Amino acid sequence: MTSTNAISPHPWLEELARRVEAVIDVGDAKSVHQLRVAAGRLSVWIELGGRAALRDDLRRLRRLVSHVRDVDVLLARRTDVAPDVQSAETRAEELRRARAILATSAPQALLVGLACVPWPEFEAAERCARGFATRVVRAARVVEQGDHAAEAVHRWRRRVRRARYALEWLGRDSTRERELQDVLGAWHDAAIEEVAAEVSSSAASDAQDPAALDSQRNAARRERDAMLETALSHFATDRERWNAWARA
Amino acid sequence: MDLYLIRHAEALLREQGGSDEKRPLSAKGRRRFVRVVAGLERIGVRFDRVLFSPHLRAQETAELALTLCDGESEVVLELARSPDELLLTNLRALTFARVALIGHEPWLSQLATQLMLGQQVSASNRVQSAMQIDKGGVVHLSGEIGSGAMTLIAAHPPDVLRKIRR
């Protein structure tokens, strides 16, 4: 289980435990984000070992704080879409809901389960990692063929993120994948802002100027489109690299 | 709720200095449980949720059972110890119609006894279980979650399930 050729889950296992505590105790934006990162990385580690159990639990853990994360993104962008008081209240409510679940035995069960999982052997993990690249190529193809719906781009973004994590578990350079993930992350942030502007616009209060909200939404949409174009261009440049990894 | 209590498949013996929690399934246990799953499929068993103990042998059994699951799986700490009120509370909170619990003996049969006969289980005064579940065996209960509130529908020995596969 702990052969020198196996991929250790440390220090991400400890990071996950730390971040669960931090979200319960502090609940700041960094803890929330890092909890999601740790869960995502460990989910890829599980898959590199050819295993399925615990992946649903890790996915639920990521989803548990996803709404808090969305509000944090809006606040970080200093958007006028939603007044800060309203965003803060939404965040507090979402955080309260997440903390209630984090305070149960579910995170401890997950940590105990992860500690029981045999570490993936490096060669087997490398073979398994091809699947991550294949899925990225397929998802990118859908977007390249003109499906720019949020669902299609989200799928591509998630697969790029998982492929990057797979590379990093294998100790390989992930600079280009991280760049692409950053661009798709910026696309995601703009998409969140656009949706928030649409919601706010349809239920604008007296304190909000509908024209300003429209302007905000249009700006977010332009940014989102620009980020998607950049991502497609980045992928086109690296196409052979992705294909080679998928075929390796 | 239809509740399926499934004991993990046969695992390797503990190595010297090794931990019980990290014992994987044996090749034979894995092979046999695949046939148990085929038998369950043959009699039309499906799950909406698969709950499993965090111990490796239960995780690996759950992975094999997931082919029968139309929903998600969930690791549950309370399945790795004697059944208590917290486990019953968590089960009552579930909104699924067909749930599999993958765990260990003697705790699963203690749970089955409590659910069927209403006998209390505590760490200091464990009841004599009304049944024993073999490795890879399945006990099907139906009814509301609660002490003495469930009815035994079937107790499937693993060797029978293996024989009725397609």
How would you describe this protein?
The complex is a heterodimer of chains A (248) and B (166). Chain A is mainly alpha-helical. Helices cover 78% and strands 0% of the residues of chain A. Chain A is built from 11 helices and no strands. Chain B is an alpha/beta fold and 166 residues long. Chain B has one domain: Phosphoglycerate mutase-like (Rossmann fold), CATH 3.40.50.1240. Chain B has a 6-stranded mixed sheet with strand order 3-2-4-1-5-6. In chain B, helix 2 links the parallel strand 2 (47-52) and strand 3. The mean pLDDT of chain B is 93. The chains are: A mainly alpha (248), B alpha/beta (166). The interface between A and B is medium-sized, with 19 and 21 residues.
Name some characteristics of this structure.
heterodimer, A: 248 residues, mainly alpha, Four Helix Bundle (Hemerythrin (Met), subunit A), 2 domains, flat, B: 166 residues, alpha/beta, Rossmann fold, 6-stranded mixed beta sheet, 5 helices, 31% helix, globular
Assembly classification: heterodimer
**CATH architecture call of chain B:** 3-Layer(aba) Sandwich
Please write the string of helix (H) and strand (E) elements of chain A: HHHHHHHHHHH
What are the segments of chain B in which pLDDT stays under 50 over at least 5 consecutive residues? none
Question: Averaged pLDDT of chain B, please?
Answer: 93
Largest sheet of chain A: none
* Helix/strand order of chain B: EHEHEHEHEEH
Radius of gyration of chain A equals 20 Å
Spatial separation of the terminal alpha carbons of chain B: 27 Å
> In CATH, what is the class of chain B?
Alpha Beta
Overall average residue pLDDT of chain A: 92
Kindly give the count of domains of chain A. 2
| Strand order in space, largest sheet of chain B | 3-2-4-1-5-6
